[in-house]
Amino acid sequence: MTSIILKIGVHNRLIHPQYRTITHRLFNNTFIFGNEVISAKQNNKPIVALESTIITHGMPYPDNFETAIKVEEIVRQRGAVPATIGIINGNIHVGLNEDQINNLAIEANGPKRAIKCSQRDICSIVAAKANGGTTVGGTVTIAHLAGIPVMATGGIGGVHRDAQDTFDISSDLIVLGRTPVAVVCAGIKAILDIPKTLEFLETLGVPVMTVGDAETFPAFYSSTTVDNIKSPAKVSGAIDAAKCINIQKNLGINSGLIFAVPIPQSHSIDPSIIDKFIQIALDELKNHGIHGKNVTPYLLKRVTELTEGKSLASNKALIENNARVAADIAVELFKISMNNNGNSGNVKLRENSGKKLNIAVIGGAVEDTVIHIEDPVVKFDGRTHRGKFLKSYGGVGRNVAAALVALGANGTRFVTAVGDDRAGKYIIESLQDAGETVEKLPNKMTARYTGIIDRNGECHLGIGEMDIFESIDANLIRNNQSIIEQTQIIILDGNPPVETMREVIDIAYNRLLPGKLNYILFLNRIKVLY
Fold first, then answer.
1. 208: which residues sit within 8 A by CB, 6+ positions away?
2. With a threshold of 0.90, does the pTM exceed it?
3. Where is the Carbohydrate kinase PfkB domain (predicted)?
4. How many domains does the chain fold into?
């Protein structure tokens, strides 16, 4: 079953982190969660995503390994769980262990060096069963799929200097423009064109905020840019940053956020000095004809050499500082989530106050007959096969409603149409109170499905008699409008006519009080509504 979540209006809560554990099941063919991350999800702990290109392309060995391990420990000390993201042998890991980090770090300068992995590279690296060090864009993409809303890194990519000639712009920016993950960094890498990058982020609608009291925007190795560029906005600390993330989430805005943390003053390099070294490295870059993915690793390495290691020391200091701030933000965001959802280790469909969570399920109810053929070969030539008949009740909407009733969601109501027959009567009675809104129609037959399955479980033929679904029409929705208007969640399967779906959305969008409705979930199939 596939699902689409349509967000309507202003939501009054974040998705409880506990429910994000379903991501592991959805992506278990390609995602491998580290034990610490799985435990964090199961026990409701905040998580901070960490990139792996700093290991594979950002620093020499053993600095890369030591920094990665230290950053993880800092996150733990601040009350969150680190999840270093990377790709190993085609498997996407969310939470690399120490041995895996060490292997990636050792191979960083060797023939088995991991591929620099942005969002576009994920599929090819996974398909080739190769190793990948995820960039900010790659990490943000995977973190979002894994339900992790906060990431820490050194600095983000951006518009390269002389981009008017090379058109070299990091895909980090595009990904941040469409992926709701907050990135905590020391600003834009100093080797890039910071003013143009800020302009481009504004175009993409990505909020950019400096953390702290400074009015100026940080420049990675330096606490400010050489020309003291003013920051687009600022937040005082982790609490305000978490509030911004929560508001962005509640408004349904699907862009990321950038929180720029100035490097500690003790490790800040004079921006005019670092800029001279960067310019030398850029000139050498042109002479060597280096371009594409190799530009940033070359520049970072060369600047380290030109500064006699000072820039590397600054790089370590800033990523460690960013990890502290990211962990603090993740913890504060988690507190907001807990306040909105209640702090419970078990799945509950009621709020802590005991108030019912009202859910409207709209969709199909079906009488199912499955014929299991026992003969080794199924032939449709008129012969009689040995088999067994199994009768049950289904339909996407009915199944969801029945599951909610079984879980104790007594505020559930199921809106559908059935025939005035034995199947219809059973469906209504089995759903208890949720069946009160089921319309029983005279001279109609409850939807029926028959499937023919061989001894191996393969379905050879399915026959559906679903005419009654046309009776789940806009009038039926209007007749139950008062019920729908009292719900926090509407679940709508793809069986009713398009006009019915439009009516549901119209009620949700135009008549519900702001903040009342959390989600509309579309299940089973996609239809073009407008």
1. 198, 201, 202, 217, 231, 232, 233, 257, 258, 260
2. no
3. 361-510
4. 2
